[in-house]
Amino acid sequence: MQVTKVIEGSHAIAEAVKIAGPKVIAAYPITPQTHIIEMLADMVAAGAIDAEYINVESEHSALAACIGAQATGVRTFTATSSQGLALMFELLHVASGMRLPLVMAVGNRALSAPLNIWNDWSDSISCRDSGWIQLYCESPQEAYDTIIQAYRIAEHKRVLLPVMVCVDGYYLTHTSEPVSMLTSLDGFLGDYEPEFKLDTENPLSLGEYANPDYYQEFKEAQHNAMGNALSVIGEVNEGFARKFGRGYGNGVIETFNMENASHAVLTMGTLSSTIKYFIEREKSDVGLIRLRSFRPFPSEDLKKVCSDVRSIAVIEKDISFGSGGAVATELRSVMDIPVASFVGGLGGRDITLKQIKEILGSTGKSGEGLTFVGSRL
Amino acid sequence: MMGELFSSGHTACAGCGMTNIIINILRAAGPDTIISNATSCSEIVSSQYPCSAWRVPYIHVAFECSAAVASGIEAALKTQNKKSNVIVIAGDGGTFDIGLQSLSGMVDRGHNVLYICYDNECYANTGVQRSSATPHGAWTTTSPYGAEMHGNPAGKKPIAEMMAAQGCKYVATSSVAYPLDIQQKVKKALAIEGPKFILIHQPCTLAWRYPPEKTVEIARMAIDCGLWVLYEIENGKLKITRRPSFRTGVKDYLKAQGRFSHLTDEEMEKIQEKAVGDWKRFEGLEKTTAA
Q1: Third-level CATH fold of A2-244
Q2: What is the CA radius of gyration of chain B?
Q3: Assigned architecture for domain A254-372
Q4: Which of A154, B107, B253, B288 could form a disulfide with B221 if both were Cys (CB 3.0 to 4.6 A apart)?
């Protein structure tokens, strides 16, 4: 059974966390994710969720506490944004290297300087190579569903990697929409059964030092687990859809109007909704690919879905200085058709329908270079 | 063969005091113990994959967050209705400097964790650099001596008193020179609910520049000359747990170590004066807090 309520994205995430049932939640406030941890605190205070809530003194300690708790055999949760994620950077690698299936929500926000609290993806994109699965959501509903899926993906025996559920700051965290919430997981997520844990009955050493004779294989194994995650994300998405009636493309990408498209536009997160609206309104012949999984990067799925298009325009809210849009750069490495790169919406600036029209109308099809959307320089 | 809970075969230097400290911590704590270890000598020498010297559950995460990791462990144990000892083992760099914030957070939140810092008064693991536990005047590679600098210009951070001020339920200092003192204090700490802090003095043959067989001797000298005071603070009351004979002079202690070899008589006298002042202060605290 499901109950539909109009709630904001942050609260949808907190509700999903509640039903997933982590035993330890470590929290530190940062805009725009704070509503998530505030609501979880309310839930813990009211006894609605049976978890220890640790008010840590920094995001670094939030992740450290989650690592410690997860290693002791329980499910955990934390959330952060921007500077907070940057402060965690060191431990992102530790969590994935230790193969701990943590789940964290990231309310995507620009990085300082200049200080800016608004949405773009520079925080999570900067953590691209930290060994975390990154799933980007389009709606509060998807944020809710993805949190639940994330635990299943992370804990999958062929994966055992931490998952970042990325939601656009404000556009998702602070926007209220109807969200259908599950009254029971109906066995979709079982009790957490760790592969290994800190246990005085069976002492293990975790987080060891590995010299050059051993280190590389750990990293290769992480890469292979990311490869496994590609199919597991799909399976989990499908299983969720079968059980609860909602799915998101094939789990790693979702397409819109690609059937008749000769050109494609690719983006992530909430910007997809604006582009969908444009395509529908203008009866455009451009198809949309929404990248749901940035890590692992679904190269084969993207090649397949683009087999009949002549060019792709990527619109993204991040910039790899000296290279270009991170998503476009990556896409170019797997595509043999032109990929045009558009970087915009940095620091929360709106990407307008007019700008989308321009991109899809002309430049987007040329497949050349890097364009800053609405640049004033 | 079970033997010690911290096994031989680790890669610590000859004459290292830290491994003796860990052996004695675990003798007192027993097998129902989980260790959160900060990046340090203790981590590097004990947990080189695929080996481990630890016969208790052990986790190392990073340098600055062993107290936060322990907080998570303790919280997770609570949710499973388990009551194992949770002990942090960290060096002075990981405690006085980079780990101070997470340690303070752990104490603030009141986690039932025993935090133990073994204090060799520098970053020995990275090749002897100055930490805020390095005593005044001591040579390290980043507090060298020359025309403009004569060893460490700053003094030692009063970390144990800071932890007591913040509300640790039990604070103690100890020394590798007295294994039973370590064991007694660890046992006492573990019997108390809440955050506890023990600071253990550990001469380092590499950093302090003395022959490896002198570790215990140097540690004893530090106590006997009054530079390292053994005490415990419980419920706001400070108790000195070993009274020095003062048959060892501060100069004897300083001269036994290469790291102080550049000090002038005048500089050594200043250190002596400070030691006398510190000792008087601790005696005073013992009297006033006992009242």
Answers
A1: Rossmann fold (3.40.50)
A2: 18
A3: 3-Layer(aba) Sandwich (3.40)
A4: B253
